[in-house]
Amino acid sequence: MNAPVAPSxxxxxxxxxxxxxxxxxxxxxxxRANLEVRLIAGQPLTTAVLGYDDSVLPQLExxxxxxxxxILLGERGQAKTRIIRALVELLDEWLPIIAGSxxxxxxxxPISAFGRDLVAERGDETPVEWVHRSRxxxxxxxxxxxxxxxxxGDVDPIKVASGLxxxxxxxxxxGLVPKSNRGIFAINELPDLAERIQVGLLNxxxxxxxxxxxxxxxxxxxxxxxxxxxxxxxxxxxRLITPLKDRFGSQIRTHYPYDLVTEVAIxxxxxxxxxxxxxIRVPWFIDDIVARVSxxxxxxxxxxxxxxxxxxxxIANYEIVVASALRRTMRTHDEAVVPRVSDLAALxxxxxxxxxxxxxxxxxxxxxxxxxxxLAVRQCFSEHVLLEEAPAIVEAFHAxxxxxxxxxxxxxxxxxxxxxxxxxxxPVRRVAGPGATDGELAAAVEFILxxxxxxxxxxxxxxxxRALYRARNR
Length: 474
Fold this sequence. Notes:
alpha/beta, Rossmann fold, 14 strands, elongated, 12% strand, 3-stranded antiparallel β-sheet, 21 helices, 2 domains
């Protein structure tokens, strides 16, 4: 995406900039001042993340007001990167730099040889260009092969070949950190950096300068450093050198959503649903179950909790359940796309790669996922459905009734079940809600039957997403 074009009325030379009354300020001061404006106006630091209003965001606001560099500790899928990227909105919209500067030189106090030479040569006629805040953010995913040249810089052999001496500062090619001058530099998975590269960040965080190779080049950087790390790597494995830990002003722990309501809200915000010629209607209990699968996985001893259970699991599961319902609807030609309990069988494919299992055999993973889904369905049913009609429904099954369900059956088959079992009519309509469509009634039928099975009042013979419900004594 292209950055916005600077307004035409902004100064274009150093002299004009000086005459405009512009006064530079550090990046920390920018963030602090603009955050103060938001807080006074009662606005949040960011609306890009949910569930952190009373935990992470207040700590981050305090850290920014204190002028700290920050490291966010949390397992995967806890919106750490999104939080960091949201900080860009606290920068001033436009920043003046010396035109063509590789390190965004302040026109009033250039730090590079290029900037100093240009100001010395042209004085008030030094050209000035304006950088939008969206271009003042650099992000690097740390990896063991990240080099010092990537982060700090190195001698550019092409410039040397063109006639510059090795010790000429103009022969340098700057890395991401110097290029982030007067902006925000973010590094994800910080402990994955080799220790010798971590050492290169020590001066950046404390003295605010860098030295490139053997060059006696001192670049007094103005940069805010934010980083992310997994707590296991940061605290227990010794993969981050102690002096680097000490240089971060604030350490903030992120977390997964504490409640299902927040998890569902994140799902609705982030999920990308497939295009469909028919309306998509997701029943409330499918929302609840999909979010609950992640919650029960985070509490399961069968799942490795060291790497966490990402919110991305909930999002992917939601998308696959809707896609499963869409696939069925294309074959049955029902009027709307409405996910059912039988569509939850598709969660195996969207869950497999997002969990680390503490089971002996990899082949156990399908059974573990099925057990997590069943537990989520049972909890949802037990917490939200008061089924006074349960004895009458169970009694109907004792009268030689068998009900088939599955991901290949049209809505009308479920409506026929309702017509044949009067005991189901009231609870199904109560669960489906007022004004429920045929698809929503069909989904409610499956949900109630599965709930009765999981609470040991009905028996079930299942093959994948297809099931046959019957009395327990048959």
